[in-house]
Amino acid sequence: MKVEIDKQSxxxxxxxxxxxxxxxxxxxxxxVYSLGQIVHNDKEVERLSSLGLVSxxxxxxxxxxxxxxxxxxxxxxxxxxxxxxxxxxxxxxxTCPIVRRLQSRIREAWLKIRDSGGxxxxxxxxxxxxxVGLLGQINNEGILITSAADFGNINVRRPVxxxxxxxxxxxxxxxxxxxxxxxxxxxxxxxxxxxxxxKTICGQVSNREPHLKEFARRHDIIVFVSGTESSxxxxxYSICKxxxxxxYFVSSPEEIDQAWFTGKxxxxxxxxxxxxxxxIENIRDLIxxx
Length: 290
What we know:
Elements: E1 2-5, H1 13-26, E2 32-35, H2 42-50, E3 53-56, H3 58-61, E4 68-71, H4 78-86, E5 90-93, H5 97-113, E6 119-123, H6 129-136, E7 143-145, E8 160-164, H7 170-186, H8 191-194, E9 195-197, H9 203-206, H10 208-217, E10 221-225, H11 231-243, E11 247-250, E12 266-271, H12 277-288
Parallel strand pairs: 1-12, 2-3, 2-4, 4-5, 6-7, 6-8, 8-9, 10-11, 10-12
Helix pairs in contact: 5-6, 10-11
């Protein structure tokens, strides 16, 4: 049986950057805390924990003083930095540069339109760390939507500045933007002037969608490797599943079922932007030995 790893799978730049910053900080031998799990992958969290990285919640952060705390790739709202300053906490900045730029763009748009009745609308996952950080930039005055069902929260007669969480589906964002434009037109507002859609989905994420569709079609079976908490993992897995029904979601080698491969001539292995390459390779080795 042919076994192939998708070359584009594995950590995106932002996650790889955060992990490398954490490893460098841990090399000094000092205790380093991560505000939330550094990446939505239990196996990678376990590896970094063995090196001394300790994950803490926001509630636990308030009890730390004089410590070193890493801000993960998802980013944080301003109040986190204020609390850290009050508690004499040294921040190790690992926010993804793409997320950091998006935080600035949303804040700049909000400052420009808030006195003229404009609305900041964000397409994203409720409670996701990146979303919390983005909305925090604008005093939580943005409108979060996950589908057209949330359009009722928007005053479609007023200007809308639409942004997206960086790891959402490009196709879903495009469709949602079109639906919102039609809704505005139905209510007598001209979307050409009242709807400003910003392209804020990470290129590494958007480029994986068409690539994974082609990869999934090429193999009899697909094994998608991801942590169960990864929003990006759930989205990319569904894309693979849509073109290849024999797509299986696993988080560790122990979840592999040999029966999946009976009579199969080729197996493709891919993963989320939060899945470490070493874990994908371990699963490749296991499947190759079946």
